[in-house]
Amino acid sequence: MRATPANDLSPFGEHQPHGALRQLLHFTQNAGLHWLGQRAALLVRGFGLRRLRARPVDVTVATLSARMRLYPYNNACEKRLLFTPQFADREERRFLAARLKPDMIFLDIGAGVGATSLFVALRAGPRAKILAVEPQPVLFERLVFNLRQNPEATIKATDCAVADVESEVTLFTNPFDLAETSMRIVNVEGGGDSVRASARSLAMLVHEEGFERVDAMKLDVEGAEDLVLEPFLVSEPQALWPLVLILAYSPGRWDVDLCAMLEERGYRRILRTRVYVMYERAAALEENG
Fold this sequence. Notes:
This protein is of the alpha/beta class. It is about 35% helix and about 25% strand. The strands form three sheets. It has a seven-stranded mixed sheet, with helices on both faces. A four-stranded mixed sheet has the order 6-9-7-8. The longest helix is centred in the first third of the chain and has 18 residues, at about 35-50. It is globular and about 55 Å long.
C-alpha cells in the first residue's frame, strides 16, 4: 500500500519553487485554454511530478489569490491547483463569483484543502461567514495550514463528516488520491484504507452556527451527497435551504434521485459540468433579477 507522508508544517515559504521547477510551473500555469495548451501542460506536469516526488510546494494560486502549500503527490485537486489552476473548476468558480455578496453565508462541505472557501472569502470580504468542513485528517491539517496563510479570509474550519447520522462513521480512503475519501466504499486496486470520524447532520451544523439562512453551499462528499442533502430538505424549513447549490454529480452512487428532488422543491438547474451540477432556488433568481 502507498504510504501517505506526514504533512510538513514548517513556515510558509520553505518550499517555494526554484530553478527548473519554477520554470516548469510557469509554463503549465500559463498554457492556453485551448486543446493543444491543455495537452502540453499535462505532458509537462508529468515531468514536474516526478521531479517533486512527495515534496510539497508553496505558491500563491493566481486564480484564487490565495497562498497555499500544495501536495500534488496524492491529491488530484492539489495537483491541478499547483500545475494547471486555470483549468480547475473554472465554470464552478465563475458561477459562484457572479453570486457573491459581502454578508453571504457559505458552506463548503467536503472542503478539501480549502480552495473554494478561500476563493469565496477573499472575494466576498470580511463580513462573509464561511464554514469549511473536512473530515479526512490529513486534508483537514492541510486545510487549517492554508487558512492560516490567508488571515484576511474569514473562514471557520470544522473536522467532521456530514451525514444522515450524528455519531461516528467510517471513511474509506484512496491512498493514491485523498480527495476521493468517502463514506461509501472507494474501489482501489490493491486495497484502500479507512478511518473513523465523528459525524453531524447538515441541520445540526447549520443550527450550531446560528445560521438563519444559507446563501450558497458546495457539497462534494464523493458519492454520499444524498446522505447529507435528502434529510435536510425533508426536515428543515425552506428558509434554511441553500439559495445556491453546487452539487458534485454522482447519481450512480446515490440511493435517491437528488436532482429530481431539488427540482420538485423549486430549484432550477443553471449549469452542468463534468463534475458538478449547479442550482438556484426561485427566491435567489427573483432576488438577482
